[in-house]
Amino acid sequence: MKNDHYYFVSWNVNGIRAVAKKNALKWIDDEVPDILGLQEIKAEEDQIPEDLFEHRYRHLYVSSSHKKGQSGVALYTDLEPEYSSPCYEVDILKEGRINEIHFGNIAFFNVYFPNGKRNEERLIYKMEFYDRFFQRIEALRKEGKSIVFCGDVNTAHREIDLARPKENEEVSGFLPIERAWIDKLIEAGYIDTFRHVHGDEPDRYSWWSMRTRARERNVGWRIDYFFVSSDLADRIVDADILDHITGSDHAPVMLKLRR
Q1: What is the mean pLDDT of residues 48-65?
Q2: Which pTM value belongs to this model?
Q3: Which helix (H) or strand (E) holds 224?
């Protein structure tokens, strides 16, 4: 029974209006997750099409970038959050990167982490963003909150998490400093739910370059995640990559968590 668990879905849509034109979110009507977190929507709230799916969620939280047509996150839910925020203490440049909501004892984050490939300055900003985010979730844990966060982390953790690890050792998204941040997360007691459920299952990716027909050949990266704090470990029911869903260069990822 769905009522026995929370069902969360996260997807970097790479343009919500483009996805709408492809009718690529209609499957939500069959699934109706308790929380749907979308990243890289590239839109203001009033530009989000109303016909993405038929289900009418009670709440929509949107954080758009101050630079039009870039970044942006949206969170749909039928839950009744006690708190919601764009979390500008982490997203200090107001690039539209975080939805933070609290319900029950859970602090939930939908996050589009920065990409460091453009230049050294953006890589430095990405690492600073990582650190600020870590401080935020750790502070909430000290207050007694359980943590769930999802989104495009823009880093593959281990060699198993990308098809061409040797070729990408010096590329942002697989640099030692980026991977070390995920090590730090795990050491601090956060669980990569996909690996928790699937172990070292190979060839499972969530992003493929659109330039080289990489998805057809499954030459990809696993950079989209659901992490939970360790106190929620025994409540993990399932976690997976919905790689049969198309419409973006990313696949959605999902988490089921016992209530």
Answers
A1: 97
A2: 0.97
A3: strand 224-229
